[in-house]
Structures are given as structure tokens and as C-alpha cells.
Amino acid sequence: MTVLYTTDHEWLRIEGETATIGITGYAQSQLGDVVFVELPKIGSQLKKAEAAAVVESVKAASDVYAPIAGEVLEVNDALGAEPGLINSDAEGKAWIFKLRIANRSELEGLMDGTAYKTHTA
Amino acid sequence: MATHVSEAPILQETPLHALLLARGGKMVAFAGYDMPVQYPSGVLKEHLHTRASAGLFDVSHMGQIALRPKSGNVRDAALALERLVPQDIVAVAPGRQRYAQFTNAAGGILDDLMVVNLGDHLFLVVNGACKAADEAHLREHLSDACTIEVLADRALVALQGPKAASVLAKICPEAPAMRFMDASARIMRVAGDAVDCLVSRSGYTGEDGYEISIPGAHAENVVSALLDDPDVMPVGLGARDSLRLEAGLCLYGHDIDATTTPIEAALEWSVQKSRRSGGARAGGFPGADVILSQFEQGAARRRVGMKPEGRAPVREGALLFADAGSVDPIGTVTSGGFGPSLNAPISMGYLPVSHAATGGLVFADVRGQRLPLRVCTMPFVPHNYKR
User: CA A27, CA A95: separation in Å to the nearest integer?
Assistant: First the structure.
């Protein structure tokens, strides 16, 4: 299992052909209290960098982009009832959606944990 | 080779900047000032704490202006100001405050403001983003009757919430006896200092509370005393916006501007009978023809509150439609977000009067989807004023 990061503050947990995607702890700290999460549709085909989900704080709405292309396999319905999970457990229980990885070469441009830490320092 | 040098805006700092930074304020540019948008507790907790206890807001970016009558008679300053606003200023008694709007020739709103009668002169509080234009407007039109002094060296803070009175009583024992919209000079006794302030029982949250104008050099002293009270939490611009939205109060430049009249903005209540047709001093303000005719005949559109039926906030700029499939928008959301006290999204905007009745259903375009909203009465959260 590998965890990768984007410059837009999304994380991806890679398990076989599946990528589980959410926003980082750093991203949630910048957003503030999350009050609504719009999830992608299961079965939709996302292009790399396409707006996939929306995370809304009291103040503003922020897009979550698909870091890689793929088909949406699963979404985290728990965020509908409890959007604040993003604040309490951004990189755990508050995963947002799972993708079937369309093109593994797209993973090559992403950062590992150490690089992301430097990116946000 | 052309090099692009980006000019960072030079932001002003209020007299409380260092203190609020030390309290963990996360600063953003607002109305030309570096202002706290939130503190470490976050917008949600700051909002709820204000409704349950007391919140302290730095609003020193707002303009504070003394309007002094050249005749020495405050009634002459009031009569002069009535040339620029559709409110009855003459009737504002000493020690009282009134909400007003500067209007333009089209009946639109140049700014909204508070007017205090301090006995020998009027004291105005105007929006930060409009204060330079307001000062010029006053100088152009009222210089014959008044001297206009911008009180740039003063801080302005708001202490809001059900515990505001008991908190302020500790440094100003007369504060709890004030009623909503009372305003006068008061002394704050803090740490061996006796500070001459202007205090009004008013605010922008829908809660009971006070707005306190403090000489800049003493502002840290007074505000530290208030923040050291365990009932008080510092509150940033983020929660200030969600609190005023729940209270159904207009944000200038968003819910009201130079293109919206007081009638369209559902602010008829703020125009006293004496300035309407048949009143003792009817008309005589910019745009009176438009505004008085809208009083008679109604306006084509109206500011309303709306509750999205789902959980998604419908924010400023969202277009409104009569039904889920119609092509032409009928209105726009001017403020929208999440109401922490309601735990639900809320919006404010303009609709044609044909669609503005309470209970009606309209649709907003949000990211390509049509979301239903129910037109509702405002405030969204009941006001808690001490009248």
C-alpha cells in the first residue's frame, strides 16, 4: 500500500487497481469547518484534473480534483451525514471517493509523504 | 525584456492588529485592512459561542465620522443629513441611534450607515469599503451646514451575544441599563485607566450587544480586558458574515448597492413616515421620486430569504429560476452559505415580486444542477435585542 499526494492537497491510497482519494490534513486546516461535501456519481468516468467533488466550509466552496483518471467505484456516504469528518479525520475515515486507476503512469508525477511535507512546509 | 512585478496591496492595520494576531487571528485583506477572518477555534465555534455567550469583533476598518453643525444646533446637522438619506434624522433624540442609507439619484444605495445623536453633534458609522467616498459625499453636499471630521484614530469593536451586557458591566456599570439603539459617551474602567468611549447597544449579529468606539491608543487596554473575560471569545470576519446572514441583515456591496433601492431591499421599515409622501419633510433626498413612487406602487423585485431544501449551500452569484427546467433566470442570490445555528444552508437574494411570496419554490443553478429553495421570512434566526 502506497500513499501519494498532489500539489492541490489531495491524498491517494493505492491498493492494487484502486485509488482511495481524500483531502489532506493540511487542506482541511486551511478550509476550516466543513459543512457539506458533494460526492461524485458512482460509475462516472473522471479525467485527470477534472472537478470530482466539492468540499464546502462555512465560508467557501472548494473543488476536489481527480488527481488521476478513472472510473468512480465507491463514494463515502458517511460524509453526507457528517461532513465534519473531513476536519476530524481527513486522511482516514473522511476518504471521499475510490477510483479504478485507468493509467498507472499518471501516478508517477505524484509526491510521496516526504515530498508533500516539504511542499507544505 | 518586460518583467512583471506584482504589487502586493499595502494593507492598513487597525489599532488592535497586534493584539488580535497574538490571539491567533488568521489575517486576510478586507476593505484595505489586514483583518482576522477567524481564530484557532474556527468559524463554527466562534459563531455558536456568540449566540450562546459573547463574541468580540474588531470592526475598526469601518469609518467613524463626526458631523458638527456650524450653527451649534444639532438639529441643523440633522436637517442637513436628511438631504442625503431618506430617514428622519431630526427625530433621533440625544443618546439614540438610527439605521440609514445614503441614496443616489436613481434611488439606489450608496452605503448604509448608523447615525447617533450625541447631543451637540452627529456621529456616523459607515462601511470601511465606502468610507472615502462617503466622506467626499458629505463634504460636497453638507459643508455649508456642517464640519466633517473623520475620526481615523479610533478603534471600533463589537461585543455581541447574550452575555455581552454582564461582561461589559464589569468595566462600564451603566451598560446594562441601555436599551437597543441607545448610544452615548461612556467611561470604560480598565487596569487603572479610565477611557472615554462611545457605546451603542447595537450590532450586526441579531444578538443583544454593544458597539464601542475607543480612542486608538487605549484600544488594546479595553479590548484585552474584554477578551480576558472567560465568557468572551474573539470572533473573525467569517463568523461575522454567517451571524449577520442568519439575522437577515444586508451586507453592503452584496445584498444592497447602488442599483438596489431601499424598497427593493425590503428596508421600508427604515424610512420613517415623515420622509414619505404626505410626511412633514417628505422627499428631499436623492432618488426621492423613485423611492416614493415605489412606496405607492411597489417595486418590481424584492430581497427575500430562501432556504435550500437540500444540504448544499447556495452562495452569492447563483442564478435563480422559476422552475427546474426554465432557461431564463428570474433572480440572483446575493448572500448565501451555511447557518451554523440552524445547522442548514441559507440564502438571501432578489426575486420578482411575482415569485417573492413566502413559501414559494424557486431553483438555483449550482454547478450545473438545479437545486430547490423555499422562499422564507427573515430573520432566519430570531433577533434577541433588548428593546
Answer: 13
Judge contact between B124 and B62, C-beta under 8 A: no
> How far is CA B237 from each of CA A65, A85, B382, rounded to the nearest angstrom?
28, 24, 21
Q: How many domains are contained in chain A?
A: 1
B313/A36 touch (CB, cutoff 8 Å), yes or no: yes
The whole-angstrom separation of Cα B362 and Cα B372 is: 6
| Residue finishing a domain among B246, B261, B291 | B246
| One domain for residues B235 and B319 | no
Chain A nearest-CA residue for B338: A58
Q: What does the pLDDT look like over B367-385, one tens digit per residue?
A: 999 999 999 999 999 999 9
pLDDT digits (tens, 9 = 90+) for B87-102: 999 999 999 999 999 9
Q: How many beta-carbon pairs below 8 A join chains A and B?
A: 45
For residue A41, the domain's CATH number is 2.40.50.100
**The CATH number of the domain where B370 resides is what?**
2.40.30.110
- The complex's ipTM works out to 0.89
List C-alpha distances in Å: B85 to A51, B79, B281, B374: 47, 10, 12, 33
Q: DSSP assignment of B159-190, as one string?
A: EESTTHHHHHHTT-TTGGGPPTTBEEEEEEEE
Helices and strands of chain B, counted as H and E runs: 8, 19
* Partner-chain contact B338 A80, CB within 8 Å: no
Number of structural domains in chain B = 2
Which structural domain range is residue B329 located in?
300-376
B214 is a domain residue: yes
In a domain, A119, yes or no: no
Percent of chain A with pLDDT over 90: 94
| CB contact (8 A) between residue B338 and residue A56 | yes
Q: Which residues between 14 and 33 in chain A have a beta carbon less than 8 angstroms from any beta carbon of chain B?
A: 32-33
DSSP element (H, E) containing B374 = strand B369-376
Residue B243: closest C-alpha in chain A:
A58
Of B229, B246, B263, the one marking the end of a domain is: B246
List, as one string, the DSSP characters of B73-119.
-HHHHHHHHTTT-SS--TT--TTBEEEEEEE-TTS-EEEEEEEEE-S
pLDDT tens-digit profile of B40-50? 999 999 999 99
